[in-house]
Amino acid sequence: MSFTQEIADAAETIKNADSVTIISHIDADGITSEAVLRQAITRRNINLESVFVRQLEPMTMKHVPDNDSLKVFIDLGAGQQNLLEERGLKESEVLIIDHHVSQDTDTPYQQVNGLKYGYEKLSAAGAGYFVARDIEDSNIDLAKLAVIGNVGDMMARESRGLIGPAKEIADDGVKAGNVKIIDGDLNSYGISTRPLHFFLSYSNDPFVPGITNDAEGAQRLVEEYAKIPLRKDNGKFRVWEDLKSDEKDRIIKLMKYHLIDSDEPVAPERLIAQHYVFPDEPRYTPLRNASEYATMLNACGRWVKPKVGSTVCCGNKKSTEYTEACREAADMLRHHRSVIREMMEYILDTGVTELSHLQYLHVGDRFPDTIVGIGAGMALSKLNWRLPIMILCYLPDDPELVKISMRTNETMVSKGVDLQAALLEASEAVGGAGGGHKIAAGAYISRSREAGFAERVNEILKRQLS
Length: 466
Ligand SMILES: [Mn+2]
Fold this sequence. Notes:
Elements: H1 3-15, E1 19-25, H2 28-42, E2 47-53, E3 70-74, H3 81-86, E4 94-97, E5 110-112, H4 124-135, H5 143-152, H6 165-176, E6 180-186, H7 196-201, H8 215-225, H9 245-259, E7 272-277, H10 290-302, H11 306-314, H12 320-350, E8 353-354, E9 359-362, H13 372-380, E10 389-395, E11 398-407, H14 410-414, H15 419-429, E12 433-436, E13 440-446, H16 453-465
Parallel strand pairs: 1-2, 1-3, 3-4, 4-5, 9-10
Antiparallel strand pairs: 6-7, 8-9, 10-11, 11-13, 12-13
Helix pairs in contact: 1-4, 2-4, 2-5, 2-10, 2-11, 4-5, 5-6, 5-10, 10-11, 10-12, 11-12, 12-13, 15-16
The site of manganese (II) ion has 6 residues, from loops.
């Protein structure tokens, strides 16, 4: 079997179905996955129902309908095939499209998964897009959504751009005319919506002395040193996307000079990344580029309204349903950002406990567990970047568990830090479970074992750096 064959078989399975149920995950990748498949399926006039779950576990399996539809599990399912078996789902009624590690079970469920072919940088929406394109060539207009899914799942992060099959998808988007790839751009978030000087001051990967967390410094760089107007003729602040390419180059060059003042040498290329802009979306909105769009969808998921996100993704722009969904999604995004900001301020005001190789804080049940990781990442940019940050929190719906979120940066990863390995080992030792990436990872452990957990992880990090 090859990946191409898996895709072709999945397309065939969907085309032959009388009705389909999509079961997907409530984050940006899950929502775009659903939106890609939903459009590919409804364009063939096949009956369809969609279900979103926070994660696939015994409690949420009950949302999977008991009917004779084809159940397409996407962005989840690969690692929970035992649950599908326990539920009594037959091989013939299941298709899994996923990019998580697959679990061995007796029932050989049909699956599309790039992971076993070495495609680690392809999200579920990416895999789902290939199936959609196989169903009908004209579905290449859906590549845009898969780009958002890939970016949302951080597939472009370490490589500073999409690579391999995910790049092929972005190229399809260019062909379809609704994706524009911008090369050699600044690696920072908010190109379409953030006022220029704030955009630069939020840039923290890498940390740029005199600019990162310093909006006044950023403003001086723009106006005094680069001699670039900060505002448009109408008085409003310009955004990064407004800048001409020579203006961008001037700013990037100046930022490279600032890097010389870094505590540790930083390769100037680390300032550079690829951006994905959507020319069919309105300017100055989060819909305009892949990373801001992904944040908006994550906000919809975190406020448990993935269907609002999906309606936006399907982009039936003339419908009032679409207009209403955009408004609601924008509200959720604003709320999302303000809660994250609140959490970051809480971490900074309360202060973290520093151990030799990490810093940590327990936030109890003050913040939704779904934003704790992001808040931790933002707080880290204002704290000692050498110490990975660990935030512990309680879960509203499970009094037994503690959620652990950890974040670090690329410099520490290059020195040997691997948060996924650290949390996996530490949580397994106390009967919990963890996973993620080197740069960002999470775990769940029992409340009865939380004492001493930070020290345990600290020891592992110490070993990794020795
Ligand atoms: Mn995913």
